Amino acid sequence: xxxxxxxxxxxxxxxxxxxxxxxxxxxxxxxxxxxxxxxxxxxxxxxxxxxxxxxxxxxxxxxxxxxxxxxxxxxxxxxxxxxxxxxxxxxxxxxxxxxxxxxxxxxxxxxxxxxxxxxxxxxxxxxxxxxxxxxxxxxxxxxxxxxxxxxxxxxxxxxxxxxxxxxxxxxxxxxxxxxxxxxxxxxxxxxxxxxxxxxxxxxxxxxxxxxxxxxxxxxxxxxxxxxxxxxxxxxxxxxxxxxxxxxxxxxxxxxxxxxxxxxxxxxxxxxxxxxxxxxxxxxxxxxxxxxxxxxxxxxxxxxxxxxxxxxxxxxxxxxxxxxxxxxxxxxxxxxxxxxxxxxxxxxxxxxxxxxxxxxxxxxxxxxxxxxxxxxxxxxxxxxxxxxxxxxxxxxxxxxxxxxxxxxxxxxxxxxxxxxxxxxxxxxxxxxxxxxxxxxxxxxxxxxxxxxxxxxxxxxxxxxxxxxxxxxxxxx
Length: 475
Ligand code: ADP
What we know:
- The chain is an alpha/beta fold.
- The protein contains 15 helices and 23 strands.
- The chain has 2 domains: 2-247 and 450-473, Aldehyde Dehydrogenase, Chain A, domain 1, CATH 3.40.605; 251-440, Aldehyde Dehydrogenase, Chain A, domain 2 (3-Layer(aba) Sandwich).
- It has a 7-stranded mixed sheet with strand order 15-16-17-14-13-19-20, with helices on both faces. It has a 6-stranded mixed sheet with strand order 10-9-8-11-12-22, with helices on both faces. Strands 1-5-4 form a 3-stranded mixed sheet, with helices on one face.
- Strand 11 (217-223), helix 8 (226-239) and strand 12 (243-246) form a beta-alpha-beta unit.
- Helix 2 crosses helix 6 (178-189) and helix 7 (204-213) packs parallel to helix 8 (226-239).
- The model has no long low-confidence stretch (mean pLDDT 98).
- The protein binds adenosine-5'-diphosphate.
- The site of adenosine-5'-diphosphate has 15 residues, from helix 7 and helix 8.
């Protein structure tokens, strides 16, 4: 079993304490990773702070060149890294390739953005003064990432932080540390100065607590569950620590009778089943207008039944395993609850017992009442609950009836309707006739309990910059 080290202060650190990494397609551990205690995390923050003092002095162009080198390393190793993502996360290999490609794109985009930490000069109101607004990097940034997109979600935090002039403490999820180790290898090969990028694994609450309480850590960017986000908000109160939080989603998909039905089905399929339903922007609940309800269901069920389930490394697989046993249990609970409340099970609905890992059959439920768990909570499984609506007003009201507001999707060919939807849907990201809205250059994040702040786009780097006003007496 291969054992992986951590990356601290420019060196590889092997510890006695390790934790195992499991392949969710087999349910077996295949690697282990070193772990550190809170005292070593504190030291790592101090090292990152020492590195910050010189990293911040580099020009944005110079920092961008380092990011370009990391991107080139990742590009060179993309096949091997994609395999690693599939091994620890379970997703189909083609989707791991897409994740690596998006990570490279994020690195390149923020490499360019590093040159653009613009301030502004504001006209003075009083004679003899001049006003400047300047941007400064915050300092050491903590980046806590989840297991569902183990590479791209770490990169989405580290790249803008490094571009801004911050140094980074990356803590990946316990289930998927290997992608971040590969990321650290790319950083090492790109010869970033020691301490600029620190990789720590260990007890999440201890590492989190150190990042929250250590005054040298000046920002935490987190992606994960709303529950952990709430813990971080409480913990951040004492030190008034700035947080960016990308939390749970519960995305609605609205399919209107004027939509091109084939495109709507294809869009809903990808929004639902990409990453085996384990994406924070996954379609959680699908509402279809009555005149096309039956036709949509027939097409959607046919495509769902045709999905190939299996180990993500096998050719042509479109649905991999869920991350663990608990995820399987939750999936079963959501299906049973919906059926008990009157939903019709049109396909799937069970864990796949003929395979070892944590596989769940791609599932479609029809006529699911709004009270169903799968209509109210994040399901994170290949389960598509579909229901019917009559009017646009009703569709918007039901779509917005959620504590979450990360993403929303709508399929329509009516431009006026599209504008009404984009203005009224309560979500940070809206895909109109598009099931895959994420792109490096546009803000990613949610409203309501889906979080605070935005990643990607110019907002993504802004999250690691302080805005300062300088009033200059020049009279
Ligand atoms: P998920 O449901 O995606 O596993 P979590 O919120 O549990 O969501 O995990 C997301 C990330 O947050 C992981 O890296 C996890 O280790 C980390 N995490 C979990 N608990 C804490 C905590 N108390 N403080 C800081 N980070 C935590």
